[in-house]
Amino acid sequence: MGIAKRILVVDDEEAIRDILKETFVHKKYEVEAAAEGNEALKRLGEHPFDLLVSDIRLPDINGMKILEKAKKKYPEMGIILITAYGSIKSAVKAMKQGAFDYITKPFNLEELEVVVDKYFEYQNLVDENLYLRSELDRRFSFDNIVGNSAPMQRVFESIRMVSRSRATVLIQGASGTGKELVARAIHYNSDRKHGPFITTNCAALPEGLVESELFGHEKGAFTGAIKMTKGRFELADGGTILLDEISEISPGLQAKLLRVIQEREIERVGGGKPIPVDVRIISTTNRDLKKAIEEGKFREDLFYRLNVVPIYLPPLSERRDDVPLLVRHFVKHYSKDNSMPVKSVSEEAMRMLVQRRWQGNVREIENCIERAVVMSGPKTETLDTAHFFFEEQIGSVDVPHMEKKPVTLFDAEKSLIMKTLRENAENRTKTAEILGISVRTLRNKLNEYKKTSA
After folding, report:
1. Could you read off the pLDDT of 299-324 as tens digits, one per residue?
2. List of domains in the chain
3. Do 82 and 104 form a contact (C-beta atoms < 8 A)?
4. pLDDT tens-digit readout, 263-275
5. Among 40, 102, 212, 318, which residue's CB has the most CB atoms within a 10 Å radius?
């Protein structure tokens, strides 16, 4: 059960104070009452309150004065004003000064209850939003980009420097090195962090709709355009747009993107009116754009517009010293995420992981650790070499369509369990023992596979 919300009721009529107090106590709120404005301000200084419900007309100072003083000292507290002398002018003034709502006498108690409940629902949403925002800040802080090696220290320094500016950034690196994570870290550590962060995978956009997706379109601009639609640049206004795999956009769109960067305005498809946008552009690529320029596949002038601040993310082969850090980081994360007891990796297993050539970089090592943690069993605290199997081994456990689509954790797990079950003549007890899981967990997994196959 959560902590009860505290309400301070202020009214010079004892009968009204009593009935309001009784009403709010019945609603499970903690309630105190004051007969005068100065008494109310004194109470506010003695104890924190979540909501103040005050009459405007009081013997000493009026409710508007209480509103003014309370909002200066306790800006997070809600205030609802009540008066028998209500007017639109007074209501507007009260709302402008920060009152949540305004009710006139004679009032219906049910109406007041609704307003108070509505305030606390609103406050819960505000608190939830602040929590989610803090979680975003935590998730995309520098602490979540793991690395002590010299190449990664240079990356951290670049992020710190560029976050303070609005400069365009080009992040280059092989697949799986964490380019999007760096882009998010730049956004959420900048003064734009309260604005939107819009991601766009340029390679995944439909060829005929790329321009509409980025810049939007007017109603009737093409067949199927039944209403005006904002593009991703407009949606990112005041924030950041991430253009992932920028090398994949067509030459025609490259020219239009260059104009957007230069003029800081876009035009919707089917519209001739320029629309100003305040957007920071971060691009990523796993290709050599200078080579693409030489081959005539990428505009040189666009490259220099995008490459104002270049950040290079090294592959794991250039930062082997970071592998133990990454392993420990992912073990801790996925053990907590899956409620598993794993706390460490054996020395032999760590040597194996450090010496391995991680072609998929951080993404591959993350998948490998998650697999090992999930499959380790309910009593395993230390992962050993036997707990790890790698992408090239998955083919030996008959993962379907390995050559056609990426392997999911679900497919890998299912294939390993079914292979072990077959090798042990469908003996579930022996299979569970070999896998290091309980017979009950094995049974639940098999039931899950039946449902997904149905």
Report:
1. 999 999 999 999 999 999 999 999 99
2. 6-135 (3.40.50.2300), 140-314 (3.40.50.300), 317-453 (1.10.8.60)
3. yes
4. 999 999 998 889 9
5. 40
